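Researcher: Next sequence.
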Amino acid sequence: MLAAQVKTIESVEDLFALLKLDFDEHTVRVYRLHILRSFGEIITSIEARDPAPTDEERSLLYASALLQAHDYYLTGQCTCDPPVFPGLRKELIPLRLKK
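Model: Next structure:
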């Protein structure tokens, strides 16, 4: 069952491979967590349908959901800035070059 396989995926790249989809590496590298969150929200609504989709329908719906999440960031529809990890800013050490 596809839903069970998706739960065991360890990376977004593996998810694209499972669904046999191509992706933009830069977009996935920068927006990885955003893509997964968007995909998860869409999948939740798919799984809440009554009646539940068949495995064949689910495969198409999951692939469509992942592409939708990916393309949202790829095409610049997102008005958000790329993720920044605030903890990294605190750890920066200014370099003092010798003159």
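Model: The two ends are 65 Å apart (CA to CA). The first helix runs from residue 2 to 7.
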